[in-house]
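Archive record:
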Amino acid sequence: MSSVMPTYGRVEISFTMGDGPYLFTAEGERYLDLTSGIAVTGLGHSHPHLVKALTAQAGTLWHTSNLYLIPEQERLADRLCAESFADLVFFCNSGAEAMEGVIKAARKYQSHIGNPERHRIIVFTGAFHGRTLATISASDSEKGQAGFGPMTEGFDRVTFGSADEVRAAVTDETAAILVEPVQGESGIFPAAESFLAELRAIADESGLLLLFDEVQCGIGRTGKLFAHHWGTTLPDVMALAKGLGGGFPIGAVLATENAAAGMTPGTHGCTFGGNPLAAACANAVLDVLLGDGFLERVIVVGNRLRSEVEGVVRDFSGVLETVRSKGLMLGMKCVCNNLEFVNAMREHKVLTVTAGDNVVRFLPPLNIENEHVDQAISALRSACHDLSQ
């Protein structure tokens, strides 16, 4: 019996090595990894530039805490600000931590400007923001909340995509609006740019902060460095994690100087956040993502992947219903149980991951090639054929 707490529905398989988009078992079986550790290993496994950056840093200094300046962290913050709306960055270890920081920053902002009563945050149906007590309260998941009540107070839920409901939900106690530009865990639902623009207008009219959760959809996943770069709407505060470290744990809260005005020494902290190892890995990820043509290539490959998947959906309408995607963030709604579909894909040596709305997700490394798309589609067709029998 395993001594690991049984909080995961694990598959009875383990991997001992990774190379590019592939994972290998101890027995030498090779699997095409279209999960990327749930949108984390965005450059695949054992990417040479990341390995070099990590090992070089590991040979000099691992950790000092945030009591002192960390040069790689300073460089990372400067680069993230230069590529975004932000003036300041706070570093942590995970997406849930980043979202906790976003929520705290919004409440602290209102208190700092003299409105301590404004603490409530408008959130959306289908939202997923993490697994801490505050973030499961902000999320729309009965399963995730079950047994952990009472929920953290201060979140008001409205329909994703409805600006009218947002306007109606604003009260004298509202501090902010929190949204994912692309909802990932609920089944890959991109927000319309017009909706995000309306949220920005509502926030400005009502003295609220606009908060973006780009933990899953950020860091190149959609073909832009940040998903909201597909439009012109900018947030006041944003959470990043997952792909930021290429597999090394790191999260970040990006904010304008105005929105972060209340975040002064002692108001927030993180022992490990942005330590030399994590910052070195994240800088290495940015080296690759910001290279000439990289993100444009993500869009091209993402479009091809979607087109090929749409062809499979047409041919196997009794197995797959629809496909939704943004860049290399793709979801297929299943007719059968989505976990059954994931198992069928694994039989053909391709790893996928479930999502809400009975969806199976493809979240491949951002640097996959056409040959990997071909392999994925071949396995997809085979799995659909198996399930249609």
Notes: The chain has two domains: 17-33+293-388, 49-289. Residues 176 and 237 are 10 Å apart (CA to CA). DSSP finds twelve helices and 17 strands in the chain.
